[in-house]
Amino acid sequence: MDQIWDEDKFFRPSYVTSAELPQRTGPVSVEDIKADLSDEFSLVSSSSDTSQSKGHIEVCLRVRPFTLLEKENESQVPPKNSLNRLSEKTAGQQIQKFTFSQVFGPETTQEEFFEGTMKQPVQDFLEGYNRLIFTYGVTNAGKTYTFLGTEDDIGVLPRTMDMLFKSIQGRLYPGMDLKPHRCRDDVKLTKDQVREETAIKNSLLRLTKEVEERFFL
């Protein structure tokens, strides 16, 4: 049986060709598709929470001490009552208030900061939970110092690695004959290959040391 194509019946206006669209005759009711998702999201939040974590994200503020230059120029900083020159409405728009999970003052040591912020997330990670830590702030806020630290006073990253490796002592592979291959594989090296890899590594380390001595001494 031949099929009859009814153009009027199957006509659909095209947005591409800017065809004339049918006029809306009245308001469209969306009550049947409206839904309050707040309860569902709260259930997801509570189910994804662990005993180690009481919220989605924790924000810790660390206030660094003033530098010598900042102390010298402290007298040039405008006084706090300078806002009185502005109208009350304008001043209210410029002042913002924030709430932090924890606040660490200028006297906080690297060890105290690690104990108060990183130790528990690292412990959670060792127990199988995913944790993401990052630093955020303006230039010269102290992010690098907090994250890496110095040789004499290391930051949260070296302390984290130290904690991780200490936790797996006695379970490390003692050999040096495995080499990563691509993303998820490894290859087992022969004795000759191990000696070759060791020579390459030592050569790179000597080159790095020479570059550091040339540019930083």
From TrEMBL:
Signal peptide: none annotated. It is found in: Cytoplasm, Cytoskeleton, Spindle. InterPro entries: KIF11-like, Kinesin_motor_dom, Kinesin_motor_dom_sf, P-loop_NTPase. SMART domains: KISc. It comes from the Eukaryota. Coiled coil: none annotated. SUPFAM superfamilies: P-loop containing nucleoside triphosphate hydrolases. One of its GO terms (molecular function) is microtubule binding. Gene3D superfamilies: Kinesin motor domain. One of its GO terms (biological process) is mitotic spindle assembly. ATP binds at residues 137-144. Keywords: ATP-binding, Coiled coil, Cytoplasm, Cytoskeleton, Motor protein, Nucleotide-binding, Phosphoprotein. Residues 56-217 form the Kinesin motor domain. One of its GO terms (cellular component) is nucleus. Belongs to the TRAFAC class myosin-kinesin ATPase superfamily. Kinesin family. This is Kinesin motor domain-containing protein. It comes from Anas platyrhynchos platyrhynchos.
